[in-house]
Amino acid sequence: MISLAEMKVNETGVIVSLAEGDQFQSKMNSLNIRIGKKLKKVSNSILKGPVVIEMDNTQVAIGFGMAQKIFLEL
Which of 3, 69, 71, 72 could bridge across to 19 with cysteines, CB 3.0–4.6 Å? Predict the structure, then answer.
């Protein structure tokens, strides 16, 4: 298990765990980021900037802090 922030660009994985917290869970749910979803890391910025992911033919940018709270199985 690895966090989204630790993944390399162009790696794919399946979400196995999300950090707890009502606000975080609500935000992830609104972005359709759920346990069991397959996603690909498209890019990340230098110095802990936004992380761009692709899932279901849609790209989404999320903050580095949020990416650290999403855990995947490669």
Answer: 69
pLDDT at 8: 94
Does the model's pTM come out above 0.85? Answer: yes
Q: How many CB atoms lie within 10 A of CB 55?
A: 17
pLDDT at 66 > cutoff 90: yes
- Give the contacts of 58 (CB within 8 A, at least 6 positions apart): 32
Residue 9 is classified by DSSP as T
Domains, in order of start, for the chain: 2-73 (2.30.30.90)
Ramachandran quadrant class, 13 (left: phi over 0; alpha: psi -120 to 50; beta: rest)? beta
H or E element at residue 39:
strand 38-44
Over residues 17-37, the mean pLDDT reads: 93
